Amino acid sequence: MSYVLRRLGFYVLAAWASITLNFFLPRFMPGDPGDAVLGKLQGQARPETIEAMRKAYGLSDDPLWQQYFDYLGNLARGEFGISLSNFPTPVTQIIQSSFGWTLLLGLTATVMSFAIGNILGIFGAWRRGGLMDSVLPPLLMFIGSFPYFWLAILALFFLSFEWGYFPLRHAFSDDLSPAFSAQFFGSVLYHLVLPAGSLIVISIGSWVLGMRNAMIATLSEDYVTMAEAKGLPQRRVMFNYAARNALLPNITAFGMQLGFVLSGSLLTEIVFSYPGLGFQLISAVRNLDYPLMQGIFLGITFGVLLANLLVDLLYVRLDPRVRGT
Amino acid sequence: MSTPPLDATAAVPLDEAPVAPTRRRRRLDGSVLGMILRNRKAAFGLAILIFFGAVAILAPVISPYDPDKFVARPHQPPSRDFLFGTTGSGEDVLSQTIWGARISLGTGVIVGVAVTLIGMVIGMSAGYFRGRVDDLLSLIMNVFLIIPALPLLVILAAFLPPGFWTIVAVLTVTGWAWGGRVLRSQTLSLREKDFVSSAVVSGENSYRIIFREILPNMMSIVVAGMFGAVTFAIGSQAGLEFLGLGNPSAISWGTNLYWAQNNSALLTGAWWTFVPSGASIALVAFAFTLVNYAIDEVTNPRLRSQRETANALKKAHQKLGTSRATPVIRERGTASGTATGD
Known about the structure:
The complex is a heterodimer of chains A (325) and B (342). With 325 residues, chain A is mostly helical. Chain A contains 14 helices and no strands. Chain A has helices spanning 2-27, 33-41, 47-56, 64-76, 91-126, 131-144, 148-162, 182-219, 222-229, 234-263, 265-271, 277-286, 290-318, 321-324. Chain B is mostly helical. Helices cover 66% and strands 0% of the residues of chain B. Chain B has helices spanning 6-11, 20-23, 32-38, 40-57, 59-62, 93-129, 131-146, 149-159, 164-190, 194-201, 206-214, 219-242, 253-262, 265-268, 275-299, 301-315. Chain B is globular and about 75 Å long. Chains A and B meet through helix 1, helix 6, helix 7, helix 8 and helix 9 of A and helix 7, helix 8, helix 12, helix 15 and helix 16 of B.
């Protein structure tokens, strides 16, 4: 229990650190980006927009500590400010509408990559020196060293533009509207193939290699030899004895990768114009929409912290040793 | 320094020993560094790195055109005059790729070194001093690790004025913690060793112990971490520039990709504008990965013994026919005796 509490304390601290960073970043920037933008907008923006901007940039005249506590209070009430590029829309609403797409893309990619990668790793270690063990790791290593968005561009260019197998952009077909219909889900899946596929291809290598090396280490443990000596079926030795224990370090890594679910798909979303958080973040950056930018950053960070907390809880269930400490 | 580490001498095949005095070329031969250099993966990776390093240094000499100049009609496919074709604004893609190596590799190396130094000081201090110092430094490292790097990179780069040093600073801030944590745990375990205790007892200064006694024993991890950091830096820099957060007028592999996309290379089918720069990044990253893999193979005893078993099997024309958890190789004809997997 104290383990979980300590982790919880850590996540609260990390959340506080990112909030504080978010608060001070625009206020201590050289040249004050706020003034520059306000100057550009003078005369063409509505007064309430300018007021919202002044707030966002910390141009209010209150002392800094008071602004800071106001900011914390606003966040606690779930007020992330108002987007400047789509003016009266609150930031939280934009985050809500794009969060689902990022989650769908990121979760599909991460979970599939984890599952396929670990299974390949188990079999690779099992048939050491076999075809899969000698060809697959270098190949995956090579693909894994591609810059991530470049692989996405290649896939988009060849599979969509040149050969027309897959759609060019967006999360579902333009002439459909969200509905509980087979046609809509089919369209969503179809649009998901390339973005998720490129994420899987690029991230699977580390799972395969990690699992393979962990399996090799685990296979030399005495309890595996013991299980073998007892004459247990190979399948059981492989999965229940070796793989189950070799999986633990990869689960920790999976927890760290959950951050990837929300943040890693950022570049993919840009390339495939997938309407998720990353896409919104970059368009916020391009439109100098600082409240939206900061809100999305905080949203992603909180999501990552929450995901890690869940993994910690899962870990307590999987590895009895941490319960004692 | 003249005596090679014990495990390396043990790995020298016995049948080479009698001819040793004349055949042995350099001191390197038996050392870890020599073993890494003789590794095929490492040699291939180093060859790629030397190639790109030379391209970056010799850019003014070998680049056929001025990379900033309009030299031909836009979006011309590769031809004799323009080996990699021309960009959407009529510049030579080959020249841009060659010049791009400078900023891309430069950023990578500077960030790699900076990240490693910071990670070394903080991680090793945490591992060496333990207790309160460790608690505090670990906490800082973990906070930096858990805040998602890419969004943080994006908002940092968006607030700071665009430029070469901004990218270097931003990548260093977001990249140091990972190496720091690895070095911390390694220091923690080395700290228990007798040679550290004896240095402590003989009254050596803490930082002397950390950097003169402990550091040389984990050089392979430091170097591997640095290569990883360089790869991270080159890739992230390209990503940031691709998003338009760098300095779009400086020529690097990332900005080349940015302009390729902005000039709608995908729509016009101008694949030659985005393939060379991306492939260069991929090759450099792959080369670093290969070298790292080789370092791991040479210095990680588990992987090494596994590889040696595999080689021994190859020599004896044996195969692990049935795969079992603990492979047993039976004698077959005159082939060598019984060997078991590690």
